[in-house]
Amino acid sequence: MTLHDIIQQDAVNVFCNLSDFAESAVYYPHTGEARTINVVNIREALQISPDDGDNVTPLFEIHVANNGVTGILSSELNLGGDMIEFSLRVGKTASKRSVTKLLSHDEGMLVLECR
Amino acid sequence: MPVVYPVIERIAQELYTRLSVLAEDTSTAETKVSEVIRPKRFEDYTPKHLQIVMKLGASAIVPELMCPGNPPAIAREQTINLHLHVMPSELDANPLDELEQQFIADVIDAVTTTQNDWHTFGGLAIDAEWRDQEDIAGDGGPDGITLPIAITYRTDEGNPYNVRA
């Protein structure tokens, strides 16, 4: 097993472990079946909306394994229609948010922006 | 007892109604609008392809359209910004410009559909005109177009609920 493989496994088994930092969410690809994934959700402060200078909008930074079972494959991600369902505030009812940006990615992890 | 709204809010509601036709299943427009939103305090919607977000912008007095009298009439020009979100699938083969121009055309058509007197919004306004459109430039790339419409209306000076001709 190469270091490359170990890093990819760590992304799934360590960083996105539900017993540690990760939480469960539902990924709705633009086309295809929804599935449950594990994400680390950084709920950011409200941001000014790109639409209008006097509106604010919630912003989320989602860390997810580059994996087709418990995460999202970088090859399947579609920034025009993919959505992730999670609670906007911890403890509140989950709702779907659009994936608006791919902030960074490598073979192990994707970092996404949701609004 | 029904809620009574000021004139400008009634105009905004009429505009919202005209736009909402585009989101109905029975709409024959080329653009299949996903939804029309008037944001709440924290904008609890998520951006979507072919979504319209409607938000009141700047409001200014129009001195040359004021009317003397008792009570005098005050004229205002209210800009309402229509944010037309265009965020197609990465697999969509259509040029972005084509989608945007079609969206703009369908919105203008829906709002002006009564043709001769569309600009009065049911007798509530004096005039309405489209203003320069602007790109919505999210830092992740283009997200659509803002299409402002400026609506001029007149009310009693001390009673924003009462329309003045």
List the helices and strands and how they pair.
The complex is a heterodimer of chains A (115) and B (165).
Chain A: H1 3-15, E1 23-28, E2 35-43, E3 47-48, E4 56-57, E5 60-65, E6 83-87, E7 94-105, E8 109-114
Antiparallel strand pairs in A: 1-2, 1-6, 2-5, 3-4, 5-8, 6-7, 7-8
Chain B: H1 7-20, E1 35-37, E2 51-61, E3 73-85, H2 96-111, E4 127-130, E5 134-138, E6 141-156, E7 159-163
Parallel strand pairs in B: 1-2
Antiparallel strand pairs in B: 2-3, 3-6, 4-6, 5-6, 6-7
Descriptive key words:
heterodimer, A: 115 residues, mainly beta, 6-stranded antiparallel beta barrel, 1 helix, B: 165 residues, alpha+beta, STM4215-like, 7-stranded mixed beta sheet, elongated
Q: Could you explain how this protein is built, in words?
A:
- The complex is a heterodimer of chains A (115) and B (165).
- Chain A has 115 residues and is mostly beta strands.
- Chain A has a single domain (3-114), classed as Roll (Pnp Oxidase, Chain A).
- Helix content of chain A is 11%, strand content 42%.
- In chain A, the strands form two sheets. A six-stranded antiparallel β-barrel of chain A has the order 1-2-5-8-7-6. In chain A, strands 3-4 form a two-stranded antiparallel ribbon.
- Chain A is globular, with a radius of gyration of 14 Å.
- The N and C termini of chain A lie far apart (38 Å).
- In chain B, strands 1, 2, 3, 4, 5, 6 and 7 form a seven-stranded mixed beta sheet that branches.
- Chain B is built from two helices and seven strands, in the order H-E-E-E-H-E-E-E-E.
- By secondary structure, chain B is an alpha+beta fold.
- Helices cover 18% and strands 35% of the residues of chain B.
